[in-house]
Amino acid sequence: MAGMVSVAAMAVALAGCSSGGDDSENSGAGIELTVFAAASLQAAFDELAEEFAAEHENVTFAPIVYDGSSVLATQLQSGAHADIFATADESNMQIVVDDGLVAGEPVTFATNELVIAVAPGNPYGIESLEDIAESQDEPDAPVVVMCAQEVPCGAAARNLLELANVSLDVASEEQNVSAVLSRVVAGEADVGFVYRTDVQIAAGEVEGIGIEGAEENPNVYPIALLQASEEQAAAQQFIDFVRSERGASILGGYGFEAP
């Protein structure tokens, strides 16, 4: 999408980034950054924020707000304050760009791939989208959950189902991918559409089944500095850290891949 800039072309090491016009970080004044991020980023961004704060002693983070990208975009449109916004797709980022809420241009920093989450042992023997559809004709049909259509994981699931020409009966539609994963982990659902990174984090509690076409149609994750931020220099430095080699290494540890 226009306006999204590849990390490969613009990777910048944190040590060399400029503080811009706001020198509050260098002045010794305390800085608190507020980040809105897609739910699938929680584990990785918690570590990224912790490491960044450890290297910048006068920078702290308000509790990072994690939710579905569409939910967060709506909150920003309604006046919620944040310094940084990271989404699990480009379309929800474009919403805040179109509303003039972003300073500069969003940049992509990671990709993720949708998978099918099932209980350990894969009791329904599901190996494909077609297997799910066929199993729904059985008396003991599996309970299927996915994200709502406006949420990136929901849009991705529907796109892959359309590509496979498969239709499913869905028991519930959740507002973020963490809710989908939680229902499968809790045994409230037998099949859920989540990201590869979610299955990695929940190792032992669910199994992940690859989806044909998912690798060729990954979710792209952009991040942006928000216009309303009063700490734009420090916020930009955190964005640069996320996009740095060290940031990519942390993200890779949770299963994210470079764009």
TrEMBL record:
What does the entry list as the binding residues for molybdate? S40, S69, V177, Y195
**What biological-process GO terms show up in the record?**
molybdate ion transport
Report which superkingdom the organism of origin falls in.
Bacteria
- Which parts of the chain are coiled coil? none
Q: Does the keyword Metal-binding apply?
A: yes
GO terms of molecular function: metal ion binding; molybdate ion binding
Listed A to Z, the keywords are:
Metal-binding, Molybdenum, Signal
Signal among keywords: yes
Q: Any stretches that span the bilayer, and where are they?
A: none
Name the family the entry cites: Belongs to the bacterial solute-binding protein ModA family.
Spell out the protein name for this chain. Molybdate ABC transporter substrate-binding protein
| Naturally occurring in which organism (per UniProt) | Candidatus Agrococcus pullicola
